[in-house]
Write a structure and sequence with these properties.
Length: 443
């Protein structure tokens, strides 16, 4: 009996996923719920288990290929002599988002009961409950490592087979990979030191590539052709985080009516060295309390606005893979130390790709500290359902006119983009003033 296995929905209705690595090859025999393939989604690296026991007949694509949700992932020849899932038993496999019935009003807290999570959000046959399940290290090619470590190794160009493991039972850890990347001891494609150098065979002499020149052979200025006629580069398919980022940005562009206000925060009164990002978070909290209209969600179809009593700030984190926006929860309850520890934790989880998907959603307002790299002002993108994002530019020393003369002040450019459907210009201006006033305080 032949079984075609379609890529299930790996969470939150994502339309596709990218193959990281197969744990089997065509012709191998695999057991029920044994890990079949590691897939990268916009938010995590997920192991997809086999739905049957049997022989692998076909694998759809190789590492780096994008597979659409509901498309063929693998094909098996079922072995009736091996364990199989009982008829009608829940596998947790879903091949696309479903339309749920309207949710009933929440019960009062005093009578609420803890319900187990829906098994439909999990790939594979798993017990429903509140038990915490640790990610297991899988041995592939003689190396034991969890998928997140393998993803980091690929990103840093580290050959896992040459990394010295320090984890339990010879497991390669995230620190092992980062250490190998830092000292260059396990570069991909590098020749081991103990291997004798091979003598290369004489290669045929190839004609030297033509050198680019602004002049033609006749000495006249060279005319170029538009890129649509000839292109030296090759198109690169977006994958994983960057692919999802493209969708989110396009959706935001189509659904938001953005307007941007800019001004400069004067930091001349600051006492001693201070954490600029922590001060920005504190100032956003102060502004949200002064003008709650920007700490809100907006539903453009129903034309409803939800004001939030708490402040969860989405902190934009730039990576080689694309943009992540983890949420700094309850920022209005944190002091400067708590803010810094929370930001450091989120950044570490993003870099190691271990951040839970739940931490990448649900923020009430956003912060982009793009000035860490360059740029004074910007028009940051508001991502629905949020209605505002604060952008901090590059710290500058400006000549400022004061009573009796001029002074040089340290100033921080601030850009505020807001959805004009949900906020008035006056609300945005008052929000920006409250933010600037807090940043101007000595400490």
């Amino acid at each position: 009996m032949i079984k075609k296995f379609l890529l299930p929905d790996l969470g939150e209705g994502l339309p596709d996923a990218t193959i990281v690595e197969w744990y089997v090859k065509e012709g191998d025999t695999i057991l029920l719920d044994q890990n079949l393939v590691s897939m990268e989604t916009a938010k995590a690296v997920v192991d997809v288990p086999s739905p049957v026991s049997g022989k692998v007949l076909k694998l759809a694509g190789g590492p780096g290929d994008v597979i659409a949700t509901g498309a063929l992932l693998a094909e098996f020849e079922i072995d009736p002599n091996l364990p199989q899932r009982a008829e009608g038993q829940d596998t947790g496999h879903h091949h696309g988002p479903t339309h749920a019935a309207p949710a009933a009003p929440a019960a009062p807290a005093a009578t609420a009961k803890a319900e187990p999570e829906d098994a439909g959000t999990v790939v594979g046959a798993m017990q429903v409950g509140n038990t915490v399940v640790q990610e297991a290290a899988i041995a592939v090619g003689g190396v034991k490592a969890v998928p997140a470590v393998r993803a980091m190794a690929r990103k840093l160009g580290v050959d896992l087979t040459r990394v010295r493991p320090s984890g339990p039972d010879g497991t390669v850890t995230m620190d092992d990979v980062k250490r190998a990347a830092a000292d260059g001891s396990a570069k991909l494609g590098a020749t081991p030191a103990s291997a004798p150098a091979a003598t290369p065979a004489p290669a045929p002499v190839a004609a030297a590539p033509a050198q680019r020149s602004p002049l033609s052979q006749s000495g006249k200025p060279m005319r170029t052709q538009p890129p649509g006629v000839t292109a030296a580069g090759q198109p690169e398919q977006l994958k994983g985080v960057r692919r999802n980022m493209a969708r989110v940005m396009a959706d935001a562009h189509a659904k938001v009516v953005p307007t941007t206000l800019v001004d400069d925060a004067d930091l001349h009164a600051w006492i001693g060295k201070q954490d600029i990002t922590a001060r920005l978070v504190r100032a956003i909290v102060a502004a949200c309390k002064a003008v709650p209209a920007l700490n809100a969600w907006f539903d453009g179809e129903a034309l409803t606005r939800t004001l939030h009593p708490h402040v969860d700030i989405g902190i934009a984190v730039d990576t080689d893979d694309g943009l992540f926006v983890p949420a700094l929860r309850n920022a209005d309850m944190l002091d400067a130390r708590g803010i810094r520890e929370g930001i450091n934790r989120l950044r570490a989880q993003v870099e190691s790709r271990t951040i839970p998907a739940s931490e990448l959603t649900g923020y009430t307002i956003s912060l982009s500290n793009f000035g860490m790299f360059a740029g004074r002002y910007a028009t940051p993108v508001v991502v629905p359902p949020c209605v505002a994002i604060v952008g901090a530019g590059k710290l500058c020393h400006d000549v400022v006119a004061v009573i009796g003369g001029i002074e040089v002040h340290r100033r921080l450019p601030i850009s505020l983009t807001f959805d004009h459907r949900a906020c008035t210009g006056g609300e945005a201006a008052r929000f920006l003033k409250a933010l600037l006033d807090d940043l101007a305080l000595p400490q």
